[in-house]
Specification:
By secondary structure, this protein is of the alpha/beta class. The protein has one domain: Rossmann fold (3-Layer(aba) Sandwich). Helix content is 38%, strand content 24%. The protein contains nine helices and ten strands. The strands form two sheets. The chain has a six-stranded mixed sheet, with helices on both faces. It has a four-stranded antiparallel sheet with strand order 2-1-4-5, with helices on one face. The protein is globular and about 50 Å long. The chain starts with 9 loop residues before the first strand and ends with a helix.
């Protein structure tokens, strides 16, 4: 987990945010129901819950990949929900997104996948794009794959390319939607190490959706538990006095109390050595 956060400046704030989906032939689904959250700058914040709890929808409301039906979303001091299309495109440069299934361009090299958002936003000239792509590849330790295509990469390498692409525009917040659920245990540890390095070395705020308690134990500073579209509780992962009410929250605290988090961190430390 990252160092104790001394600066509690808000990176993300959600105020009474809701999202409803119409279901053909049935009642509308309240995917996110009146959620308010404050995420501090520089922390790793986990969103956990069972399938269908609303975690991924809530994450996508932060950068308005999903449009909220009610409520307000702030990233830093900027109200994302008040922006027009042009303002939203600019604001999204401050929010990187890592998807579960990588979402890479299959006919483009690793270099071109990472350069894509820089070219799309028109922020940098050619030489500057090249330097920024190299910086991102060094961060995820994939310099030797710069001219490879996604089909030539392992699942873990594809996810690291996706992380590098998300970092290309130097975002303030990194949004991760189940980034390890399609990976094996060893590769998961490698991706967690990469995310932890990004948080520690760059001071980047990370919001991560997961159903894997091992990911929360190894990476997160705080966690919110979601059920049926609502956040039912929040607590610090390191809080020995936490008394969760939810089943998932109680299981997480039980694992931490039994030292399982230490074993996971020891494995990550060994990988770093």
């Amino acid at each position: 987990m990252s160092k104790i956060i001394e600066n509690l400046t808000e990176a993300v704030r959600l105020e009474a945010v809701s999202k409803r989906f119409n279901v053909p032939g049935g009642e509308p689904l309240n995917a996110v129901d009146n959620v308010s959250l404050q995420i501090h700058a520089g922390e790793v914040f986990g969103l956990i819950g069972t399938s269908g709890a609303g975690k991924s929808t809530l994450l996508r409301l932060i950068n308005r990949l999903e449009q909220p039906d009610a409520g307000r979303v702030f990233v830093g001091s900027r109200e994302i929900t008040a922006l027009d299309d042009k303002g939203l495109r600019k604001a999204r440069q401050s929010m990187g997104m890592v998807f579960q299934q990588f979402n890479l361009l299959q006919n483009a090299t690793v270099y071109d996948n990472i350069a894509f958002p820089l070219r799309m936003h028109g922020r940098l000239a050619g030489g500057e794009i090249f330097r920024r792509v190299l910086e991102c590849l060094r961060t995820v330790n994939l310099m030797d794959k710069i001219q490879s295509y996604p089909a030539q990469l392992s699942g873990g390498q594809k996810q690291r390319v996706a992380i590098a692409r998300a970092l290309a525009t130097e975002p303030q917040v990194l949004l991760c939607d189940e980034p390890t659920s399609a990976l094996d245990a060893e590769t998961t540890r490698s991706i967690l190490q990469t995310l932890r390095d990004i948080n520690r070395e760059l001071g980047m705020t990370i919001v991560i959706v997961t159903h894997e308690l091992s990911v929360v134990r190894a990476l997160c500073d705080r966690v919110a538990v979601m059920e049926h579209g609502a956040v039912v509780e929040q607590f610090a992962v390191s809080d020995n006095l936490a008394s969760p009410r939810s089943t998932l929250g109680r299981e997480l605290v039980r694992q931490i109390a039994h030292g399982e988090v230490r074993a996971e961190l020891d494995r990550l430390e060994a990988a770093l050595a």
